[in-house]
Each structure stands twice: as C-alpha cells, then as structure tokens.
Amino acid sequence: MASKHIYYKIIIRVLFITFTAFTLAYFSINKHLDYSIYVGIILCFQVVGLIKFLNKTNRKIAFFFEAMENDDSAIHFPTHIKDKSIKDLHKSLNRVNFLIQKIKIKNKQQEQYYHSILEQAAVGLLTLNEKGHILLANKTAKTLLNYEQLTHVEQLKRVDEKLFTLISQLKPFDQKLTAITNERETIQLTIRSKPITVDNDNLILIIIQNINSELNEKETDAWIKLFRVLTHEIMNSIAPITSLSETLSTIYKKDNKVILPSELNENDIKKTIKGLDIIKDQGQDLTNFVESYRSLTKIPKPEKEIILVETLFNKIRILSSQEEGFQEIKFEVSIKPNNLEIYADEKQIIQVLFNLVKNAIQSINKTSNQGVIQLKAEKDEYSNIIVSVIDNGLGIPLETQDQIFIPFFTTKEGGTGIGLSLSKHIMKLHGGSLNVTSIPNSITTFSLKL
Q1: H/E element holding 203?
Q2: Is residue 114, in this structure, part of any structural domain at all?
Q3: Membrane-spanning residues where (predicted)?
C-alpha cells in the first residue's frame, strides 16, 4: 500500500529529527558550541527534507484532484521509478483514476440510455428553469409544438400565443387542456406540470400529451351509448302506439275494406277511446322525453360567486328534509377548514348536491341499513376543493358505474336518467368534475372537484 510506505518514511524521518533534536539539546546543555552548530545545521536539513517530501506527495495528490476537477482522463503517473513509496502512490492514483473513469463511462451510458427513452416517449417533455430557459425538450414535444429547436419559453409565442400564456402561468401540479392548430390539423393537448430539483436548481417538468385519439374514441363510445339509450326509450314509447294503431285499425276494417258506421257497436267505440287515450299518454311521454333532452342543452353559463360551504350544506339539509325517509337517516357534515369557501353558481351547485342527496336517500330506503349520509368538503394536496356526498345505501354495481352519467340511462323504476348527466354537465361548465366510487351495500361516494 502506498500509504504504508509513505507512513514508514515519515516515521523514520521524524525519528531522525527527534534524535538530532535531542543531540542538539545535549551539546547545548554541555556547552559544546561547535558540535551544537553542526548538529543544528543537520537538523535544519532534516526538517527541510521532510517538508520537501511531504510537499512532493501533496503536489502529486493535488495535481491528481485538479485533473479530476478538469475532467482530464488522460492523466497517468509513471510507475517505473526506484522510489518504492512514490511508485506505490502513483499506482494507487492511477487505479483511482481508472475507477473514476469507469464510473463516468457507466454514467454516460446510463445517461444515453435514459435520453433514448425520453426521446422515444409518446408524451412530450419539457423542463424549464425559473428564468424560462428550456433545458430539455424531447422529440415528441418538438413534434407536437412543431418547433425544432426549443431553448426558451418565449419561442412558444411563435407556435401559439394562448399556449405560451398557459405554460408561462403554470403552477406546480397544474393540469390544463388546450388546443393548437398547425397547417395540418387542430391538436387537443393536456398539459401537466410537476416541480423537480436538480443540483439545487428548482425546475418545472411539463408533460404534454396529444389526446385527439383518446377523445375521438371516448366521443364515439359516448355517442354509441347515447344512441343505444335514445333508441331504447323511443322504441318503448313508439311500440305501444304502433301496436294499438294496428289493433284499432282492425275494428274499422274488414277484408281490407272500411266498415260502415252502422256496423260499429258500443264496445268498439269504448275500445277506440281507450286506445286513443293510451296513444295520447305515450305521445305525451315521448314529448316529455324530448323535453328532457332539450334541458341538457339549455343549462345557462354559471354565474359564479363566493359561497360559504357551511351555508350551502345547511340549505341542502333543509331541502332534503322533505324527502321520504329522511327522518330515519343520520345526516353528518364535515368541513375542513370550517370557513371553507367555493367559487361557483349557487343555484346550480345546490341542484347538483340536492340531486345526489336525494339519490342517496332513495338508495338507503332500499336497504335495511341504519342510514348515514355525509356531506364532506376539504382541500386536497393540490388546493382543489373536493365536495363529497357519501352514503351507505344500496350502492352502484361496478359494471354500471361508467354508464350512470349517460343521458337517459337509469336503473330506477320511473327514473328519467337526466339527473346525473345534468349534474355532470353543470360541473363541466364550472371547470370541475363529478366522479363516483362505490362498494355495493357498503359505501358510495360522489365527489365534486372544483
């Protein structure tokens, strides 16, 4: 070991210096001036030699670290020298240099590996520093933004002014939806941000995703489901009308000829009146159905204001108290913090919450459980306000949870299938969302995100 040989050399030199110092002290005490001068000179040479030896070793080590700092991988210390201690030191420094270079090569390979993954990622990735410099932009981001060299966020003005404003004002954990138009098409993008720290620098990672295909797929699926429900409801109304019309037609025709009025009897007239009443009722039901559909397209733009959640919940409780079975249900309220406020259209939000609470009461009434409904409001970790309606009623089967927001889909006898779809649309107009999670016969949670 290099340190071992150097250690021995230093000890030997220190021992010689110590011996010389004692000799000098002995001659000085016995007043041998001439010997004292000679021994003093020898002591000086020994001290200077030790200093030079240490400096020589330190200079080599300092030179080595300076080379590492400057990323000089070509440095090499000669090993064909006679001095055993220096030779071993050189070998050790060369070995350390080799290990460092090996680690650097491995890191470079990993960096290249991760860079290749980022370049091939299906989502666009940008990293911005606090001054707006783009430190990384992968291939997908450049393709989506139709810009080959992205170095600063100001360049996005040339792509789309709205996009530039949106990205410039992004806060950590924001999620936005926007669209940009190029010479070929209009692209729908979701943009998310996440704070990261690299080398004590605070950066923002921006994730950009083209959701055109997902939107088209979901839109097609939604239309198919809507048409299926519309067809079902319309056929339910038209089928009795058609059947009754054919039945009534047989009363007034014989052998494909219209019978004479004199051939009619009182029973035929009663059947006709009864049939016409049924046709009228079915027609009215169909008209009401169409009116329900029209109501989905007539929701006014929200007139937002600051609303104290506690006041909102009190109004919901008063409205719900008129529902059948309410008195047997335990009604709980949880608001954190107590003075929590939301910015929304009060009438529309009351309409949504009242519809959810009414559904919860009806669901509980179908069970033998001790009914509990909880109105809950709190902020999540991203400062979004989550308002929840939680009940322990019948619940919603997993296979129908993705269908309950489709217009006219209903599992309730006599239900219109409008309430939840209307509520979903109101939340969309507020820039929020309405979601459901349910474990049948245990717990069901409808969550409004604002």
Answers
A1: strand 201-210
A2: no
A3: 7-29, 35-54
DSSP 8-state class, residue 394: S
Q: Are residues 367 and 254 in the same domain?
A: no
The dihedrals phi and psi of 318, each to the nearest 5 degrees, come to -65, -45
Residue 431, sorted as left (phi over 0), alpha (psi -120 to 50) or beta, turns out to be left
pLDDT tens-digit profile of 84-104? 666 777 777 778 878 888 888
Give yes or no: residues 192 and 223 share one domain: no
Tokens of 188: 């729908």
pLDDT at residue 408, rounded to an integer: 63
pLDDT in tens, 345-384: 888 888 889 889 888 888 888 877 788 889 999 988 777 8
What 3 state SS string does 224-262 have? HHHHHHHHHHHHHHHHHHHHHHHHHHHHCEECCEECCHH
- 193 with 238, same domain: the answer is no
Range of the domain at 316: 305-449
* 187-212 pLDDT, tens digit each: 778 888 888 888 778 888 888 888 76
C-alpha–C-alpha distance, residues 134 and 127, integer Å: 6
